[in-house]
Amino acid sequence: MTESTITETTTGAAASPRLIADAAEIFDAPSIQSALDDACTASGDKTPRAAAVAVLKEAQIAARTLIAERFSARPFEARPMTRSYTYLTDQLVQMALYVAATHLHPNPNPTEGERLSVMAVGGYGRGEMAPFSDVDLLFVIPYKVTAWNESVIESMLYMLWDLKLKVGHATRTINECVRLGSEDFTIQTALLEQRHVAGDTDLAEALQTTLRRDLFAGQGRAFIEAKLEERDNRHIRQGQRYVVEPNVKEGKGGLRDLHSLFWIAKHIYGVERVSDLVEKDVFRTEEYETFRAAEDFLWAVRGHLHLLTRRATEQLTFDMQVQVADALQYEDTGGRRAVEVFMQEFFRHATAVGDLTRIFLTNLEAVHLKAEPLLERIFRRKPRVKDGYKVVHNRLAIADEGRFLSDNLNLLRIFEEALRTGMLIHPNAMRLIKANLHLIDDDVRSDPEATRIFHDLLLKHGNPERALRRMNELGMLSAFIPEFEPIVAMMQFNMYHSFTVDEHTIQCIANLARIERGELEEELPVASSILSRGVNRKVLYTALLLHDIGKGRPEDHSILGAKMVRKIAPRLGLKQDEVDTAEWLVRYHLLMSDMAQKRDIADPRTVRDFAKAVQTVKRLDLLCVLTVCDIRGVGPDTWNNWKAVLIRALYRQTERALETGLEDLNRANRGVEAKKALREALSDWPRKALQEETARHYAPYWQGLHVTAHVAFANLLRDFPDGEIRVDLHPDEDRDATRACFVMADHPGIFSRLAGALALVGANVVDARSYTTKDGYVTDAFWIQDAEGNAYEAARLPRLRQMIEKTLRGEVVTRDALKSRDKVKKREKAFKVPTHITFDNEGSEIYTIIEVDTRDRPGLLYDLARTLADSNVYIANAVIATYGEQVVDTFYVKDMFGLKYYSESKQSTLEKRLRAAIAEGVERAEG
User: Fold this and answer.
1) Average pLDDT for the chain
2) Which DSSP letter does residue 249 get?
3) Is 616 helix (H, G, I), strand (E, B) or coil?
4) What count of other Cβ atoms lies within 10 Å of the Cβ of residue 823?
5) Is 424 helix (H, G, I), strand (E, B) or coil?
6) How confident is the model over 216-253, as pLDDT tens digits?
């Protein structure tokens, strides 16, 4: 097979036909055929087949090594790579047939029925092969299978399998190909890309002629519908375009979408190359170039993915993203890791593929749709569109392109008309918009009418995310707000964010719109009530749209984003006071989340400091709604009841402080209220028992726990015998956590032992509080979640209790037992999480706050708590906030004398010990 034959069957085809090396360098067919003859005639101890396989295997290894080396040296040359693997496979198939027909089953006088043609089908037939692609073969025979045909095919397959090729195969007559292809669109698609590789050429030509006449003539509508349904089902399985670990082949915007496009083009238009679609006015030249660039990029990624894993791997897992970025020679730049730069380019190509396939398939769908029945056309109510638009196949289309382009603002108005009518925009209109984005210049951006239209898109129609997503896909959002362009398709390389930055922003807007529509009133009562009371919606939507605009640069994105808002917001028509508020929201958009998740909100100082930062209830309202939308927009499972309770509690306490005065936030008031609540809850207790209970605890106990926990501890402590360990496990589904209360005699290190026991049972600690009673007992409360981030089911609590008690009795040595469980998964090793340790003596009146920001892993809390205990540090409580692979463990501590850690030398010593414990754990986790 020649190089030009390979090229003619590929979807690209406009480039000069070339392999990654000279054909003879890859596979010197004459020399290898001569070696096969010698090996088969003088096979010695080996069978002729085994001798032949040995020759072919040596040639195969040399060829694959050469192709891989050349591809690594020129990592983006995907087409020569795919052609080269195809060429090598062709040669191996041809040589396998030669050995089988010449040496193993010679037949000098074949009958008419003893003919055989070997066809490549599927991707192999198209001439596009990655290093470990399947080899799909069709053995075409004239009539029913003869003994000779069966023997030759069997010997060929065994040789190819011995060469470790993954071969899919079928043996059929021409009539069977037509019959089965007409019944099954998968088979029909494979036959669409058939190509003769070896054997009888007359049989191959007869197959091709018959297929064109009897299978591919007609059936266009049915084929399109089958491919569209197949694509939709595949997208449902694989997820949307911006999943963080995309499938290069099957995912949305991946190679299979390009293949679907080519299959339909070839079926309907009879084209051999996508470039032919330009001549048929299906694609514009620039659209074809976009297609070609995306195809080259995706094939390069797939090729490196195969080579790095040494198998047919199609999913870009986190660990492989780093390795592929390195293979493609990306470099760290501008505060961003090479892998983030690489993945942004990947998602931009995926978006381009989505645009092209939508344009192509929707056009085909429109052309091949059957006319609607007359009664449907008469009685269907067609939407009324404004002057300048028309409805084409239930999509919003442009009536006159010249007139449309005569007013630059029409490029914005069409998105509002689509929202108003609830219609999709016609692909031809989308193409026109994309081709004329240059018309959105500074004059348009500063035009009051343009800002009015844009704000109406956000505020007027109730579903702004729909317009924003379409504007973003077409490049209009970046044209109107150029500062948005750098975050388009920007991946955040961590396990916390499920979307790219631009998609996260649109998800946030979608959440805000849902709250406004009243869809989340039960789930988000505070945010819903804030919006029902009324806020400045223009400020809120603008701040949410721009809150991550500063990402991807070395500076703090909140501070940089706030500076950018000061320039962008006036351009969007905000008044000066609105600009100030929007800037403040962007600068502090993480403040409420951090305070709620990383600090003890039961500590009056936390609420006081937050209230001082917010200053007004108006800002508090806006920040609360923005925070909720931001967290919910991170991913489908990020928001939970635990976070909801924290945000809700911080909001209500801060609102009360801002309305009644900060002086209300003091421990004495809280202690009095807490004891009163306990007396009411335990009204059936004897007066003396109640007095003993309220007198046995220090002040922090009363302000740090809810009355339900106070009741649980009161019952555990009542008639408490020495030497016993009492445990109360209470699933709190409203908080998505189980409260574990422990009571035992106080002794050093008990907090770390409890943390270790919980780690051993696989519990994730989200909050922990430790208190010592005046009569020598420890009362520790931990809030824990299972691996899915939920409260433990009641049925699992007895085993959980048993394991905890067994560990606390010393029957299991926590440190040793954790060694076998403390492993970081392979796909998660690529994440870099630097450790930061800070000491804060201002955030609490009586404690030093130690914040440890590092890589999460099982047993981390235990390691840190044990290190602090060994250093004679008293841990009052711990707050744990997890962000994917990153965790922030915050400890409220004091020294053995009950004092804060003011000394820099003591802080330095503690930091060194904590870092050593983290490093030791990392070494253990990495094996």
Assistant:
1) 88
2) T
3) coil
4) 14
5) strand
6) 876 667 777 777 777 777 777 765 556 788 899 988 88
d(CA 152, CA 159): 11
Q: Domains of the chain (ranges plus CATH)?
A: 3-217 (3.30.460.10), 222-368 (1.20.120.330), 371-480 (1.10.110.30), 486-665 (no CATH), 708-925 (no CATH)
pLDDT in tens, 488-500: 999 888 777 888 8
Angle at Cα 445 formed by Cα 442 and Cα 446, nearest 5°?
A: 90
Burial of 574 from C-beta contacts in 10 A (0-12 / 13-18 / 19+): buried
Helix, strand and coil percent figures for the chain, each rounded to 5: 60, 10, 30
Question: What pairs with residue 708 in β-bridges?
Answer: none
Please name the helix (run of DSSP H) or strand (run of DSSP E) that holds residue 765, with its range, or none. strand 764-772
Residue with tokens 């409220």, as numbered in its chain: 892
* Crossing angle between the packed helical segments 48-73 and 29-41, to the nearest 10 degrees: 150
* Close Cβ partners of 256 (under 8 Å, ≥ 6 residues apart): 231, 234, 249, 250
Is the Cβ–Cβ distance between 314 and 320 less than 8 Å?
Answer: no
User: Residues 55, 31: contact at Cβ < 8 Å?
Assistant: no
Distance, in Å, from the CA atom of 133 to the CA atom of 126, rounded to the nearest integer, reads 12
For residue 491, give the nearest of 347, 618, 619 by alpha carbon: 347
Question: Within the chain, which residues score under 70 in pLDDT?
Answer: 1-17, 43, 218-220, 238-242, 361-382, 662-669, 812-813, 816-829, 923-927
Amino acid making up residue 172: R
H runs (alpha helix) in 599-640:
604-614, 617-632
